[in-house]
Structures are given as structure tokens and as C-alpha cells.
What we know:
Number of strands: 15
Number of helices: 9
Structural class: alpha+beta
Number of domains: 2
Largest sheet: 11 strands, antiparallel
Amino acid sequence: MAARGLHVAAFHVEDDAEACRRRIKRAVKDGAAEIVVGGGDGTMTRAVDALANRRSVMGLLPFGTGNSFAQSLGIPTGDLDAAVGVIAHGHAERVDLGVVNGTHFANFATIGLSSEIANATPRLLKKFTGAVAYALAGIRPILTHRAFRARIRWKGGRLDVRTQDIIVANGRFFGNTPVTPDATIVDGRLHLFTADGASAFDALRTFVALGRGLQAALPDAHVVTARAFTIRARERQPIAIDGDLLARTPARFTVARQALRVFVPETGVAHG
Length: 272
């Protein structure tokens, strides 16, 4: 960062995402104009929750497994020097954030199987195997997770499903997979995916399709775009945001329009 002409007023290392959120909140309160955060998507969600609707500008250094937020912003994920260069150029824009039950999130929230898999994936395994860690940790949940009945409502629509999984994305990506081909992080909308299916085979088929980016082609898939969703499950299901468990259903999803100021490439936020 010094080589790029950036002056670092303070540098901190935190060993968990919640401690990172508290550190950022203190920096915002102290009037920090620019706050650079390095970490994975779980860390980024804690960061954006602290920075939502604040004057401070966020810089992003992608150190995670999926780095969905960086991909939605168009920030290089495999080149740290290029990511620092985005900050050094100083081009900031406002982007949307998702909100579930009052908590802001950067990328996506999951209900059901994906939440269980995220909770079952050890951080150390992700460090050494990357995205493969989710496939390894997902074997047991896929075989044991029970389908649930859910009612999804949005303005002008309703969907009743028996499913294993529900994904609601703010930006474009779920991991490395676009939830919908035209989703962006500045379109003021949320993008929901789910699929009917009660068996372990159905769960495995959906999991594989998501990994290959073919989920929308499943015969029982549902893809819905709206500004807000309300989701209720007959049996309360875990909610995870960007891989970290948050709470349980019911869930109310909305969009916080242009809630975050963040450094992005000079060409602007990626639109696809």
C-alpha cells in the first residue's frame, strides 16, 4: 500500500469477523474517511453492516474462498496488487446492500441446506482446500438434511414450495455462480432461487447444479426477482448470511439502496 502512495494511519488484525465489525464501528465513530478491510465474504458482511449509510468509504482486499462481493464489484480476486490499485485510484461509488431481519449483508443469504453446509465447513479446511471445502463438508448435510415447506411472498406474488434450500442474493454471485445472469449490485433488487424437491438426490442435484451455474435449468427451479421478500417455514430454518449463521426463520428481506460507499475499478461497478 505504501508503494501505491497510500498512508496507513492504523493497522489492526482481528481473529474473528465480529471483532472486525466492532473495530470498524470504532473507526467510523472516530471519523475515519477510508477503511480498508481484508478478508472473506463473512468478514465483508460484518464490515458492510458497520459501514451501511455512513460517510466512510470502504476498500476491499479479497482474502476469502469465494470472494463473491469482490466479484460483484469487479475487483480482481487473484491479484492482490491489482486490488490495492483499485483503492489507490480512489474511484468510489455507492452500491446496494441486502437486509435480512435488520442486518445488512453484502452478497447473499441462505435458508436451509446451504446454511447448514456453511456452518459445517471448518475454516481451516477452507484455508487449505478453497471452495472444495464446501463440497467435502456438504456430504453429510446433503444426506441428512430434511426438506421443509416454505411460503415466499413478494409484491404481486406468492410461492409455496417443499424445498431443501432457498438463496436470496443482493449482488450477482453465490460463490462463483451468478444467481441470475442479469443481476447486479446496483439494480435495487434481490434475486431469489429455490427448487422443489424433498429427497437427498434432489438436494445433491441442486448442489451440483449450483456449482456448475446450471441451477436455473433445473425443471423444478424457481427464480424470482423483487425488491423485498418475506419467507416463512413450517419448521423454523437456519438463516446464514455470506456463510455465517445469523438466526432462524421467519425472514424479511429488503434492499438498502446505495447504502455503501466503496472503492471500485475506474470503469465502474461490474454489470455482468
